[in-house]
Amino acid sequence: MGKTESSASGRSRRGPGRPKAGSEDKSARILEEALNLFSRVGYDGASLEDIARASDLSKAGLLHHYPSKEALFAAVLEERDRRSTLTITETLGLPVDRQTLPSGLEVDAWEALRSWEHVLEENFRNVAGTSLYVTLGSSVTNPDHPAHEWFTTHLSVFLNTFCEVLEQGKKRGTVDPAAPSMQIARILAAVSDGLQLQYLAHVTDLESGDEKSLKALDTDIVSEAHLVIQMIEDRWRIR
Question: How far apart are CA 126 and CA 134, in angstroms?
Answer without folding.
Answer: 12
